[in-house]
Amino acid sequence: MLEYTNKNAKSVWNNCLNFIKDNIQEQAFKTWFEPIQAIELTENALYIQVPSQFFYEWLEEHYVKILKVALTKELGAGAKLLYKIQMENAIGNKQPYTDQLPSTQRAPVRTQELDVPVQNKNPELKNPFIIPGIRNVKIESQLNSNYSFDNFLEGDSNRLARSAGLAVSNKPGGTSFNPLLIFGGVGLGKTHLAHAIGVEIKDLYPEKTVLYISAEVFTQQYVDSVRKQTRNDFIYFYQLIDVLIVDDIQFLSGKSGTQDVFFHIFNHLHQNGKQVILTSDKAPVDMQDIEQRLLSRFKWGLSAEIQNPDVDTRIEILKGILYRDGVSMPEEIIEYVAQNVKTNVRELEGAIISLIAQSSFNKREITLELAKQVVDKFVKNVKKEITIDYIQKVVSDYFQMDTETLCSKTRKRHIVQARQLAMFFAKKYTKASLANIGSEIGNRDHATVLHACKTIDNLIETDKQFRKYHDDINKKFSI
Ligand SMILES: Nc1ncnc2c1ncn2[C@@H]1O[C@H](COP(=O)(O)OP(=O)(O)OP(=O)(O)O)[C@@H](O)[C@H]1O
Predict the structure, then answer these.
(1) Cα 344 to the chain's mean position, in Å?
(2) Are the CB atoms for 177 and 277 separated by under 8 Å?
(3) Eight-class DSSP state of 104
(4) Which of 135, 187, 259, 351 has its CA 20 to 30 A from that of 290?
(5) Which of 248, 293, 303, 244 is nearest to 273 (CA)?
(6) Number of CB atoms found within 10 A of residue 462's CB
(7) How far is CA 20 from CA 382, 387, 408, in A?
(8) Is-contact 345 337, C-beta < 8 A?
């Protein structure tokens, strides 16, 4: 009887596959349909087995319509598709077993059955942090213990983000700040705060699995997992985390595969009351090439901005560094440095450290005169860096593309506009001729550069969003 049913399930499924194959791309068919097994047919319901929960979610997300059409053709209007999820490596059971789920038409993706902690089912998953061949289920947090709340000075510029971070640390997953998105310009302390939250949680809740990862490393791991066909392990791994901290989330921009996988991981964690902390160099509203559904999730919790610190906070930060390094310095020198290095905290740190170094190497007393020399050099050096190369880098970083793309021949509007902005800034901030600018930025002629500058002037006048791009980037050059 079972054999008879199996045979029917298979033939019904085969017919469905033939139909699906004709309607989707070959690679998608291979990836998402070939691994499926038809396992049972009861009246109007077909049970299929899929290799993972992620697989199920993907099918429901992307292929539910075509599945419905195919199955209705085979089994009539009341056709139902039911999924069984294969759980590999179950404890004490070498045989795969399944969790069962109904098909939906974008109904809730998760059901009770799926909420069973993945941990227990898959103790041997591959940890993307571990070199192949070495097994280790213990997840290292990758946190930097030098970054703590104690040495993250509070000021008006970061009060909201810092307080929200503290609240999240005290009750990870239990506040409405989930996700907590910390955003702000370069070198203002996002990474520091993100680590501090993780370190504090580890102190308060040592049993929680906390993981800090940059979006860049996350992307590399995902790409590797696709290459090595360990995508499911990758997803399982991330679903084990209690507190996931992803730094520089804007890096996911334009990477639709990684965004997709992150979306699923995010949903899993969020629905299971796990805490997600994200940092970004822009507010969600300004992120480009990030899928809407992901952006809307970023906005579920709290987006807290870190701004440039005011002079009082800069003084406190400098004092913190001096205290840490056991160096004393006259108040007027600290104030001088704080008043003159305004760009961001990283540069403030850089200036005071070079001042300390200068004085100790040259065995000179730290005087206001020495401070002036160092700061002058420091600030001037930063100014000197505005070259066409630097402009191309800043503009392409801002739009999350590489400089090759910026300079390419493409006519895609957003790339053309980024290129035109780079030309515009090159004209504004360098002494290079139009012809020179053109030849460095995409090998164009002087007329193209002239046209670019006019177009940008015009866009700044007429397009509010574009003006914001211009102003954001311009800030990076005006020191
Ligand atoms: N409020 C603060 N108190 C003390 N140190 C700070 C503060 N804000 C930033 N810093 C220090 O400034 C430096 C730069 O901070 P961080 O790396 O966290 O910046 P970021 O915003 O993540 O920058 P990026 O966008 O480049 O990644 C770090 O050394 C950090 O410790």
Answers:
(1) 22
(2) no
(3) -
(4) 187
(5) 244
(6) 9
(7) 58, 54, 37
(8) no
Residue with tokens 């941990």: 119
Q: Is 352 in the pocket of ligand 1 (CB under 6 A)?
A: no
> Alpha helix locations (H) across 106-255?
118-121, 159-170, 190-204, 215-227, 231-239
Chain centre distance of CA 381: 31
Model pTM greater than 0.80?
A: no
Q: Is the ipTM of this complex over 0.90?
A: yes
**pLDDT digits over 336-371, tens only?**
999 888 888 988 888 898 888 877 777 777 888 888
- DSSP secondary structure of 184-221: ESTTSSHHHHHHHHHHHHHHH-TTS-EEEEEHHHHHHH
Per DSSP, the chain holds a count of helices (H) and strands (E) of 21, 9
Indicate whether residue 187 lines ligand 1 (CB < 6 A).
Answer: yes
Whether the CB of 324 sits within 6 Å of ligand 1: no
How many residues make up the chain in this entry?
Answer: 479
Q: What residues have CB less than 8 Å from 7, skipping those under 6 apart?
A: none
pLDDT along the chain (479 residues), means of 10: 60 91 80 86 85 75 84 86 65 41 40 29 46 51 92 90 93 90 92 96 93 94 90 87 94 90 92 94 84 86 89 92 86 90 87 84 80 77 71 92 90 92 92 89 93 94 91 82
State if residue 195 touches ligand 1 by the CB under 6 angstroms criterion: no
Q: Known binder of ligand: residue 189? A: yes
Question: What single letter denotes the amino acid at residue 151?
Answer: N
Q: If you search the block for the tokens 């059971």, which residue do you land on?
A: 93
To test the pocket of ligand 1, the residue of 144, 319, 324, 346 to mutate (highest count of ligand atoms within 8 Å of its CB) is 346
